[in-house]
């Protein structure tokens, strides 16, 4: 990439917490991200919406390098995480990550889930770590459950422990990857309430979600992605309330009123979006090259 | 369907499947009872006892060093298990390494030691002091046995441990890495503890096999204070010209292996209940 004089990369402004420039990501032949450029500012809540396969989760996972971008640059508070010399582990401590499937450590209690990185990564004394962990568990409404194992908790409770675990590192920003998609409908509310409180405190949040009501109410900005590009972005009132692009309108119609969608509509739309990809898609998505074990190269 | 068969073949009323199964079961019981009866009637009880279970020789087996032999069997097994577990874990991690030569070394090691009889490995290590005069393995004779049996069992254990590591969901290491843990720390603090929980039952099975494999020690030259159960029982069998000591020694293996078997079954039941 040859940077001409026009935009400064990175901006150098501490409030531009996540800066993404021309991000591309391919899995084998399949190009999932086709040039994403955006900036997320301090205290901003950005919801990323879009149909499945649009690349929104991949985008989020590229931000903390759980996926290695094919090309493009990402800066976290003006430090380039895509730089081969970057201290990824230190940069990751500044970003809390919440997964769709919780990914709590099942052999540790809720409290230990929150303290393990504090004592092992940040080298905090055990007593201090437990104090921090307890405060965060209390914050998500689970102060009494510190001694419980993940297997003894409901999905909603597990996800809130996962949020407390991420918050315990005192991150500058939080990444949420479909945090409520694996939950029973009646458990979604508790998790969203915690996230809403977090947003009200001024936490910078990047949220991949299908919860349109949450996006409309809490987000400062909504990014609609489709086919690996940002199709439309702006205030939720505009993007969700008055979408300009036909693809956004089509997507929102299906999501907001799913009972009136004709059978096969989504299949047809998907096929159209992925016309160029379908030939290679048959190889199984190509998430990992065969023979790569649990030390996947994407984990840097 | 019943209507059709009834119309076509009215001569023989067919047994219902349930009744037929019942009759088959009855026949099986009758065969079993007949076999047991035949053994009891033809066996010469007193003669059997004279050959296999002479009370005075049972007592003599106990007093002439059985506890020491049992202790040695346990010592050989435990040491070899520790060596095997250590090398096995290392091999499993090498097998999953991103550095290709490590994977090759691990694969070659595993295929070699799984394919060669444990007895040959043991004999080779026993012969080291002949091959290299003056060479001393520490803690003789335990050192030789621990290393030889440990290296063989490591090949089997590494495959078990590798499967255990791969059974830990990828999301676990992603969560650990997202908290800022380097790969090594994530492996040690998050992946391995879960992997070992998964592989404890199969590893206990490995321990049972190892207990029995420790009997191979009889093949290398040992001083009498290094005798384990098999060598001890066989020597006493030869000197008394009676099978009793060997049988007693054999039963001693059960003292070790049966509790382990029960333990494995318990753990497997518990694991089955725990999986949601």
TrEMBL record, chain A:
Q: How does it sit in the membrane?
A: Peripheral membrane protein
Task: Show the GO MF annotations.
Answer: ATP binding; ATP hydrolysis activity; ATPase-coupled polar amino acid-transporter activity
Compartmental location: Cell membrane
The family annotation for this protein states: Belongs to the ABC transporter superfamily.
Q: Which GO terms describe its cellular component?
A: plasma membrane
Classification via InterPro entries: AAA+_ATPase, ABC_ATPase_HisP-typ, ABC_transporter-like_ATP-bd, ABC_transporter-like_CS, MetN_ABC_transporter-like, P-loop_NTPase
Name the SMART domains on file: AAA
Per the record, the domain of life is Bacteria
**Entry keyword annotation includes ATP-binding:** yes
Question: Pfam families of this UniProt entry?
Answer: ABC_tran (PF00005)
Residue ranges annotated for the ABC transporter domain, each copy included: 18-252
Region span, Disordered:
279-300
Q: What is this enzyme's catalytic activity, as reactions?
A: a polar amino acid(out) + ATP + H2O = a polar amino acid(in) + ADP + phosphate + H(+)
EC number of the protein = 7.4.2.1
Q: Which UniProt keywords apply?
A: Amino-acid transport, ATP-binding, Cell membrane, Membrane, Nucleotide-binding, Transport
Q: What's the name of the protein?
A: ABC-type polar-amino-acid transporter
PROSITE patterns annotated for this entry? Answer: ABC_TRANSPORTER_1, ABC_TRANSPORTER_2
Coiled-coil intervals: none
TrEMBL record, chain B:
* Domain of life (superkingdom): Bacteria
The cross-references to NCBIfam families, in alphabetical order and at most eight, read: HEQRo_perm_3TM (TIGR01726)
Which InterPro entries does this chain map to? AA_ABC_transptr_permease_3TM, ArtM/GltK/GlnP/TcyL/YhdX-like, MetI-like, MetI-like_sf
**Domain ABC transmembrane type-1 positions:** 70-264
Q: Which organism is it from?
A: Propioniciclava tarda
List the PANTHER family. Answer: GLUTAMINE TRANSPORT SYSTEM PERMEASE PROTEIN GLNP, MEMBRANE COMPONENT OF AMINO ACID ABC TRANSPORTER
Q: Does the keyword Protein biosynthesis apply?
A: no
Q: Where in the cell is it found?
A: Cell membrane
- GO MF annotation terms: transmembrane transporter activity
Known CDD domains for this protein? TM_PBP2
Q: What is this protein's name?
A: Amino acid ABC transporter permease
């Amino acid at each position: 990439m040859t940077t001409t004089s026009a935009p400064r990369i990175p901006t150098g402004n501490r409030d531009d917490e996540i800066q993404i420039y021309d991000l591309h990501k391919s899995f084998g032949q399949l190009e999932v991200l086709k040039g994403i450029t955006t900036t997320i500012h301090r205290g901003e809540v950005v919801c990323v919406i879009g149909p499945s396969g649009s690349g929104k989760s991949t985008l989020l996972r590229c931000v903390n390098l759980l996926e290695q971008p094919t090309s493009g640059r990402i800066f976290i508070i003006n430090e380039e995480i895509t730089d081969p010399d970057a201290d990824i582990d230190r940069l990751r401590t500044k970003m809390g990550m919440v997964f769709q499937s919780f990914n709590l450590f099942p052999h540790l209690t809720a409290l230990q889930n929150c303290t393990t990185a504090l004592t092992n990564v940040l080298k905090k004394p055990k007593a201090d770590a437990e104090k921090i962990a307890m405060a965060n568990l209390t914050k998500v409404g689970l102060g009494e459950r510190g001694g419980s194992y993940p297997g003894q908790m409901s999905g909603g409770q597990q996800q809130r422990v996962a949020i407390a675990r991420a918050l315990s590192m005192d991150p500058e920003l939080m990444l949420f990857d479909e945090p409520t998609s694996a939950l029973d409908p009646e458990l979604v509310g508790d998790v969203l309430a915690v996230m809403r409180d977090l947003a009200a405190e001024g936490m910078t949040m990047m949220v991949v979600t299908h919860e349109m009501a949450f996006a409309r109410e809490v987000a400062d900005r909504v990014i609609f992605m489709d086919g690996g590009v940002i199709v439309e972005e702006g205030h939720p009132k505009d993007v969700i309330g008055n979408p300009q692009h036909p693809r956004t309108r089509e997507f929102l119609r299906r999501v907001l009123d799913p009972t009136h969608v004709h059978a096969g509509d989504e299949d047809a739309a998907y096929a159209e979006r992925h016309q160029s990809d379908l030939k290679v898609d048959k190889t199984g998505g190509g998430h990992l090259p065969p023979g790569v074990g649990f030390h996947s190269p994407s984990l840097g | 369907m019943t209507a059709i068969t009834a119309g076509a073949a009215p001569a023989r009323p067919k047994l219902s499947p349930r009744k037929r199964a019942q009759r088959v079961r009855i026949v099986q019981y009758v065969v079993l009872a007949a076999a047991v009866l035949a053994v009891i009637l033809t066996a010469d009880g007193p003669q059997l006892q004279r050959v296999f279970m002479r009370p005075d020789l049972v007592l003599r087996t106990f007093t002439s060093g059985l506890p020491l032999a049992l202790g040695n069997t346990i010592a050989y097994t435990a040491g070899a298990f520790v060596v095997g577990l250590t090398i096995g874990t290392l091999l499993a991690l090498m097998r999953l390494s991103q550095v290709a030569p490590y994977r090759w070394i691990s694969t070659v090691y595993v295929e070699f030691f799984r394919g060669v009889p444990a007895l040959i490995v043991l004999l080779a290590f026993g012969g080291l002091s002949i091959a290299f005069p003056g060479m001393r393995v520490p803690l003789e004779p335990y050192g030789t046995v621990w290393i030889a049996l440990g290296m063989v069992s490591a090949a089997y254990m590494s495959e078990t441990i590798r499967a255990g590591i791969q059974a830990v969901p990828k999301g676990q290491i992603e969560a650990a890495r997202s908290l800022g843990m380097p790969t090594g720390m994530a492996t040690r603090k998050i992946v391995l503890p879960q992997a070992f929980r998964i592989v404890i039952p199969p590893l206990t099975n490995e321990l049972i096999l190892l207990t029995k494999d420790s009997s191979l020690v009889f093949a290398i030259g040992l001083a009498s204070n290094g005798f384990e159960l098999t060598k001890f029982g066989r020597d006493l069998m030869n000197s008394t010209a009676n099978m009793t000591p060997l049988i007693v020694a054999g039963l001693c293996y059960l003292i070790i292996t049966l509790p382990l078997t029960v333990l494995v079954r318990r753990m497997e039941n518990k694991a089955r209940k725990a999986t949601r």
